[in-house]
Design brief:
Length: 201
């Protein structure tokens, strides 16, 4: 059975959410942060990070790669084919390279790091860079409900999974009403609520 490795208060949240959306059976192995540099965990994720995944003989790291693998087990609309599959890959790579580094910089220096280590300048720069990406997303969502096609897909799960922490911690999305409404739609789906319950307790 598919094993999703790592506590839910890590990027494993997005993998748990994807598995719930896909409806694939999985085991949640709740490896804590205290064990991620140990030999047993390094054998499945040599980066010493969460999450990791095992599925038969396949071991994967990188949360969004894990999610694409989970989605590959089901068909459309969660895992669309053809041109829409290319669009899923586009948004997934955009999530990893454009969205996540900037929103994480804001998050790290706003609420994640101990107060003494936060840098207001880095938080502001992270917000400015995030807002530039959110403007792109706002334009894309101007006349559509979901990122790809006309149904929720793994692309929505991957990108909304990245913005979940900032959405939960009250990032100011007021300049991006379409994005805010899309995040509300994504993160209150039944599968998202199940994964959020694992994370938020
Ligand atoms: N790009 C990786 C990032 C993994 C990552 O940084 N995970 C964090 C938890 S969410 C972690 O394990 N941090 C502990 C550390 O870096 O020592 C992914 O998406 O899986």
């Amino acid at each position: 059975m598919l094993k999703l490795i790592g506590v839910a208060r890590s990027r494993n949240f997005r993998c748990l959410w994807a598995a719930e959306e896909a409806g694939v059976p999985y085991e949640h192995v709740q490896t804590p942060f205290t064990e991620i540099k140990g030999a047993a965990h390094l054998a499945v994720n040599p980066n010493g990070k969460l999450p990791a995944m095992q599925d038969g003989g396949l071991a994967l790291f990188e949360s969004l790669a894990i999610n694409l693998h989970i989605a590959s087990k089901v068909g459309a609309p969660f895992n669309p084919a053809g041109d829409d599959h290319a669009r899923v890959l586009q948004w997934t790579l955009w999530a990893a390279t454009e969205a996540e580094p900037n929103i994480m910089q804001w998050a790290q220096h706003t609420f994640m790091k101990p107060e003494a280590e936060r840098d207001a300048g880095l938080a502001a720069a992270g917000k400015a860079a995030s807002d530039a990406r959110l403007a792109v997303l706002e334009g894309h969502l101007a006349n559509r409900e979901w990122l790809v096609g006309n149904a929720f897909s793994i692309a929505d799960c991957n990108l909304a999974g990245i913005y979940y922490g900032s959405w939960f911690n009250k990032y100011d999305f007021s300049g991006f009403p379409k994005v805010k409404a899309w995040l509300d739609r994504c993160l209150t789906r039944p599968a998202a609520l199940t994964a959020r319950k694992l994370r938020e307790g």
